[in-house]
Amino acid sequence: MLKIRRAAASDLPGIFAIHDDEVLHGTATLDEQPFTEQRRNEWFLAHAGERHPVLVADDGEQILAWGSLSPWSQESGCRRAAEVRVFVHKNCRREGLGRTMLQELITHARAVELGALLSRVTSESQTSLELQAEFGFRHVGTLRHVASKFGRMLDVELFELELGPV
Questions:
Q1: Which of 21, 75, 109, 153 is deepest in the core (most CB within 10 A)?
Q2: Are 154 and 122 in contact, with CB atoms under 8 Å apart?
Q3: Residues 6+ apart with CB under 8 A from 49
Q4: Residues 6+ apart with CB under 8 A from 43
Q5: What is the pLDDT of residue 166?
Q6: Which of 75, 62, 60, 49 is nearest to 18 (CA)?
Q7: DSSP for residue 158
Q8: Residue 91: pLDDT band by 50, 70, 90 thresholds?
């Protein structure tokens, strides 16, 4: 039975198993090295508040997907915006987990009165691009060749979803 819930510190190995696989083999993250234990803990503590959580999809045995809301900017005037990220275990892709996680994060963002969700997606991440479109995220620009990974230059697409006034 799949359960979507707030992440606990004990979920960090499952979260970072998914993340680190993408670090080493994909472009859903532009990190090039897996996080150290200290960096994992710092990242998790930065998401301890109600406004910017980490959620996990748990089947009772392992973490199958996770997503987070993070401050878009440290400038106080940008507090109504958050960056949304979703990662799905490589063996569970195309089963609707990404969709489920994104819907939960949008629902949470509305509940804590965020006004906009923003995302960055590499141009080659077709599944993520389709997911943005499905949820009504508006493409607001392309940053050409701002990233490199695996010896390739990558474009990053920027998306926003307006949630309404705060």
A1: 109
A2: yes
A3: none
A4: 35
A5: 59
A6: 62
A7: E
A8: confident
CATH superfamily, domain at 3-162 = Gcn5-related N-acetyltransferase (GNAT) (3.40.630.30)
What pLDDT, on a 0 to 100 scale, did the predictor assign at position 95? 85
Q: Report the distance separating Cα 27 and Cα 123, nearest Å.
A: 9
30 and 147 Cβ atoms separated by less than 8 Å: yes
Note the helical H segments in 8-59: 12-25, 37-46
pLDDT at 99: 95
Give 20's contacts (C-beta < 8 A, 6+ positions apart).
34, 35
Residue type (1 letter), 133:
A
End-to-end Cα, the chain, rounded Å: 35
Residue 22 amino acid letter: E
Q: What are the sequence ranges of the domains in the chain?
A: 3-162
Q: What is this structure's pTM?
A: 0.93
